[in-house]
Fold each of these.
Amino acid sequence: MAALLIPRRNRGMRTRLGCLSHKSDSYNDFTAILPDKPNRALKRLSTEEATRWADSFDVLLSHKYGLAAFRAFLKTEFSEENLEFWLACEDFKKTRSAAKLASKAQRIFEEFIDVQAPREVNIDFQTRELTRRNMQEPSISCFDQAQGKVHSLMEKDSYPRFLRSKIYTDLLSQTQRRLS
């Protein structure tokens, strides 16, 4: 019986490793997750807009196609939980109902902050503990420190790599080709 389990386990491992080896970082991956139909969206995106994403991280995050491109890039690095957490916090800050505030806070904490959370973000122990204490009386600002740390991590680490990535350079090339 054990002999039957080993090949099956190896097969599964080979499949997982095969998926990892086919990790892609290309313009085509970006178009698959665009908020609109890819061709129409790219026709709307100007070279100027895409170039402005390099001006600042916040400019990138404020543009829906910039956000989509950055998300696609983070997926290639297996770190999209950082952006998803940041976006969840932005949505959380718009919550006006006290009842919804508490339930949303709990969901965000369990999904991103708690130790062994399914999409745990990389924050230090002190920030995690402060956020845990903030959960006793959730408020609009209970995730501010954690969100700030994640924003800073993405800005200093992922954002510069995004600007050098094939996703971004291919996208710029595509918008420039339309002008020719």
Amino acid sequence: YRRLHTKETQLSKFNQTEIKAMLGSYTKVLFVRDPFHRLIATFLQGMGINPSFSSFVQEVLDGGMHRGGVAWKPLVSLCRPCLIQYDYVVMFGFLRQELGHLLRRAGLPAGSLLPELTDSQVQWTYRWLSEQMFSELSAQQKKQLSRFYRWDLAAFLFSSSFLSE
């Protein structure tokens, strides 16, 4: 939708008719990741200034939706999957398989364009990290996190998420 598209323009700056026309002209891909894994990755990347994972989680919970960083805000508040009909939803942990399918559907040679991804190693590592980090949290923090991410857990199939247990 060339007439209105610029790098700096946000979708919210357009009226409903323009938004519908623009979204209809693009292939929309949404990349999703287990919210607990997003928290772990953010903590490990040093975005949290707290010395422990439990303190970092408490900072996230205390900040809530208003002061939260994009790295840990619920996906449904960022990507609006109920309002935007995405053509593809790609789940972290299955990137190689899903990106290959996406590239083939777009008519591109999947093998030569994909980086070497080892999905099974990523899944195993995050399962181990999740167990370690989850054990640091209080029962109240676990309950609050599950509530904080309830809409993400309902919208996407994170079947092995510690937050849905």
Amino acid sequence: LHAQHSQGLQSPCMDLCHVPATREKGWYLVLMAPNVKGPNYAWLDPSRLYCHPQGLQDCVADLLQPFQGDAIDMVAGIDAMGFILGAAAAAVLRKGFLAIRKAGHLCVQTLAQPYTDYSGREKVMEVRTDAISPGLRILLVDQWVETGGTMRAAIQLVEQLGGPPPPCPTGVAAICIEDSEGGRWIRERYKCAHCVPSGLQPRFDRHQ
């Protein structure tokens, strides 16, 4: 998997038809593309993964596997790339999908939460106030958890509107939850799912 990962990051294109004979957890990570535009961008771009039919299906299945048998009433995705995985997870679970948005995009009554994103920029996140009722069990989904600031803001919004108790959110899912201070804070308090094999986690934490 290490060799496949390195080879996949160096390749400028991908084969949407190729599926490996043995699909171990995280095999689809080789489809992701590295940052070629400099420090103002995230270090890795997972969007290429979403173009691969089997890769996307297996990624969503891995994110949902730890929550098999858990009560989930709704899936919430975080603006913007969390919308892709969150909506896909909601479709698999046959549940509704809630978009948690950056400020200024919702024309209804909202609850707002300021936060600092992975790049150190100050932002504000909003969620509509009529979608979450007390006790609703929500699975929070984002593409990536780097410093944890964005996910923590989403958690605060959901908990202000929906509890606890019971546990709300019921869990957190992302392709990668880095071993940062914020990532550890989330892992220690909430049930989490991610797609990175343990052997590769240190490399992802170092952005290699």
Amino acid sequence: QRRMWAYTVGFTVLPHVGGFLGWFINRKDMPVWYERLKKPSWCPSRKIFPVAWTVLYTGMGYASYLIWNDLGGCNSKAIVPLGLYGAQLALNWAWPPFFFGIRNLKMALIDILCLDGLVIGTMCSWYCINKVATLLMVPYLGWLAMATCLTIRIWKDNPEAKPGKTE
């Protein structure tokens, strides 16, 4: 019983680790640079992002635990569903360093477009395993849709922020 709690907590906390590290590494210059970017009127307030990501990371982490548990742990049946999950998590964690760290809007855009595809693939692979886990990913996919549109707009509307671009 105690061991299952450890797995539940571990899977649920794991997504937060990369999210926290991304914030921690990029926190110094992020607010000033981000505020200077031209953003659409529908861009959420910076204050919303930590709250949203806390909820989203918790939901996706718990969902991954449900999949792992239903498949009986790490075995051959888990390779594709948890592999897709791990790949999308890696791309999720890579986005802040691309966007805020090296300020490469094009790489951030490529990253998030690939991330969208991996999240959809993850959800499709999870659907026949655990519908609740799949549903826990729906808010994440919705947020990613908004974040993808926002990344596209920021990339298009800030040509001076694109690396290698000369005026």
